Amino acid sequence: MHCALLYSGGKDSTLAALLLDPFYDVTLVSGSFGVGTVDPARESATAVGFDHATVDLDPEVADDAVERMHDDGYPRNGIQRVHEHAVETVAAGDWLDDADGIDTLAAVADGTRRDDRVPTIERPLAQSVEDRFVVDYLAPLAGVGRGAIDAMAADRLVVESGPSAEVPKADYEVELRALLRERYGAGAVADVFPEHTQSRVRGLR
């Protein structure tokens, strides 16, 4: 059974992959609007022994998200919209023609945690994705708190951590920051995105 897991290269999505690995053939999938690079996620996937694929996301969704973040003054609603689009795009499976050895998907997953405010996939959307695309939606960390995740990551993963602007990953935030900077200037990025710590997986312990 094949599972496509949305992957940034960080510890949450990597732990989700490790939890699913005994039950699925897991492929780590990074969505891209064509603005940034998915190389950091590909490198992290290779370092932990998983196949990696890239899925093209709709640039109009990124444009709408950037407009919303700028108008709101914070990133939450824009990132939520992008994540929902990514889950649906991966579940639709149009990218499978370019993926090695995957004919159909049994499941689509992400690394969202119990404590996440954004992104999340609420039950109605999860059920809609399952019904429309005939896949299971999985969030293996949805019942796990930050402390437990940090402990599991420390036990199993080699992780680089630092300010979000300095740790290269392949998540939506990197591309949305670039689009926001291009459209509204560097000051808009600082206004919209609060500084926070990001993680990037470098390997297994």
Assign an overall shape: globular
Low-confidence stretches at least 5 residues in length (pLDDT < 50)?
Answer: none
Q: State the share of residues found in helices, binned by percent.
A: 40-55%
Radius of gyration: 16 Å
Could you give the distance between the termini?
27 Å
* Strand content bin: 15-25%
Mean pLDDT: 93
What class do helices, strands and sheet pairing give?
alpha/beta
Strand order of the largest sheet: 3-2-1-4-5
CATH topology: Rossmann fold
The CATH class name reads: Alpha Beta
Structural summary, described in words:
The chain is α/β, with parallel strands linked by helices. It has one domain: HUPs (Rossmann fold, 3-Layer(aba) Sandwich), CATH 3.40.50.620. Helices cover 45% and strands 20% of the residues. It is built from 8 helices and 7 strands. It has helices at 11-20, 39-47, 59-72, 76-92, 123-133, 146-156, 172-184, 186-192, and strands at residues 2-6, 25-32, 51-56, 107-109, 136-138, 157-163, 197-204. Strands 3-2-1-4-5 form a 5-stranded parallel sheet, with helices on both faces. Strands 6-7 form a two-stranded antiparallel sheet. Helix 7 packs across helix 8 (186-192). The longest helix is centred in the middle third of the chain and has 17 residues, at 76-92. The chain is globular and about 45 Å long. 38% of the residues are buried.
